[in-house]
Design brief:
By secondary structure, this protein is of the alpha+beta class. The protein contains eight helices and 17 strands. The strands form five sheets. The chain has an eight-stranded antiparallel sheet with strand order 1-2-6-7-10-15-16-17, with helices on one face. Strands 3-5-4 form a three-stranded antiparallel sheet, covered by helices on one side.
């Protein structure tokens, strides 16, 4: 049984195998409801969301947030430190001046880039665990959930399936963040998922079996525009304020979808050699730059 629903700017699809139709339908409905709940919590498009309220007020005073949001932001800071700033949840102002907030993109003038860089950087984000508050140390800081929200949502949805006794399912957020729970009938290796060839959308660059594993992909072909003979994608280097260059796509296989989605961006930004030196042993990386292949 399979169902889909839109949330967080993505289409979430859940496919479940089992003998009890009512149980499967109830489980799928619960997971899609969870995606909708997280949209209401984490959306930077909804002014009433907790995420948007934080963006509006945390520069003026510390804001007490839910334990869930505090935990997610704490994880974001850890990704930022470990990636040497290539993953940065404060990239929101840069995304806006490059036109990737609700639109296809525009060439940002250097003066605008220089101006917003003063508000970008995870060191502007301060968490107080004792008070469970979040604050920004300068005006203009804006958090963007785009680099982690879908992965977090997929993991939460998988947790719901497990609690309901589902042991064979595929959960996908717009095909860019996917988790294979167990294995489908007749295929003990897991769920066969294709990694798109970034230079030819009708072909696969690789295939991978997901069995209690996730796959996330970041590619310059997802959102981009061309200007002056160059291609500019939505994947930003938060440290420079400009779109990352040189990489076409990165796919990460990891035990948790939040990890595979979050790490796909810094691997893309920092390049193949940095990725080779820094990726953990429990993940696999498929890299496309001048050539495509698994990073060993």
């Amino acid at each position: 049984m399979e169902k889909s629903a839109d949330a967080m700017g993505a289409t979430f699809t859940v496919a479940v195998y089992g003998a009890d139709r009512a149980k499967m339908e109830g489980s799928i409905d619960a997971t899609l409801a969870e995606a909708q709940r997280l949209d209401a919590l984490l959306s930077n498009y909804r002014p009433e969301s907790e995420w948007s309220r934080l963006n509006r007020t945390a520069a003026s005073h510390p804001v007490r947030v839910s334990a869930e949001l505090f935990g997610l932001l704490s994880a974001c800071l850890e990704y930022s430190r470990a990636s040497q700033g290539a993953f940065d949840i404060t990239v929101g102002p840069v995304m806006k001046i490059w036109g990737f907030y609700k639109s296809a993109g525009r060439l940002a003038p250097p003066s605008e880039v220089d101006a917003v860089l003063k508000t970008v950087g995870y060191r502007h984000l301060h968490l107080d665990p004792a008070a469970q508050t979040v604050s920004f140390d300068t005006a203009g800081v804006e958090l963007d959930p785009g680099g982690i929200g879908k992965g977090y949502a997929v993991d939460r949805m998988v947790e719901i399936l497990r609690r309901r006794g589902v042991d064979r399912a595929l959960v996908a957020g717009s095909d860019s963040s996917i988790y294979g729970l167990g294995a489908p009938p007749g295929e003990p290796r897991g769920w066969l998922v294709s990694i798109r060839d970034p230079r030819n959308s009708r072909q696969s660059a690789a295939e991978v079996y997901l069995k209690d594993m996730s796959l996330s992909t970041s590619g310059s072909y997802e959102k981009f525009f061309q200007a002056g003979g160059r291609t500019y994608s939505h994947i930003m280097d938060p440290r420079t304020g400009y779109p990352a260059q040189g990489t076409v796509s990165v796919s990460v296989v990891a035990p948790r979808t939040i990890d595979s989605e979050a790490w796909a961006k810094p691997y893309f930004v920092n390049g193949r050699q940095w990725t080779k030196a820094h990726h953990p042993a429990d993940s696999r990386i498929f890299f496309c730059d001048a050539a495509c292949g698994w990073v060993e």
